[in-house]
Amino acid sequence: MDPLLAHITDTSVIIKMNNSQDLNVDCTVAEIRAQYDDIASCSQAKAESWYHSKCEEIKATVQNHVRSLRHSKEDLNRLNQAIQRLAVRSCELETTKERLEGASGSAKGKLAWLEAALQQAKEDMVRQLREYQELMVVKLGLDFEIATYRKLLQGEEQRLGLGSGAGSVAPGTAPDSGPARPLPPGADPGLLETSAPGGGCALCGSPGCASDFSCRGSREY
Fold this sequence. Notes:
This protein is mostly helical. The chain is built from 2 helices and no strands.
């Protein structure tokens, strides 16, 4: 209404007077009233047109805002859903992390246990190897003593004449051992030979052994 009032205020009315004639007040007032009615009608039409145009603009603006608000709500809902999915995924990842950390700790514990078991096995192997070497030394000594006592017994049998005949054994040879093999320099043929009956070394049992003190093997039983 303010633009209408401003338009009415700015409107000027021009009245022409003819002094040469008699004044007709009623006719003049009717004309002025008709002009004001026309001006008012025109102003009202303009005001109504302006009002309708403004209403349409406001309606269009409201509709645009409503659409924007609806789109914003849809975007917000999608973002909320994405946040919920990310939160669930974060919980799953946290659970997976804890499970992997537990598995890693268990694997580290198993690795430490295996390393300890390996170290213990190495120590046991070293101890058993040492014991085996000691046993081999004892066995080698026993085999040498057995061979020595055997040669002493053979020498005693030869001295008493029990080995005469088909089963006689010459010094430096063993029964059924084939041709006599040479003894080490300085060795007593009746006491220090380490040949076993049937051929082979009394210490290692190998037919190709030199049958002297250089033998370091052990006889397999």
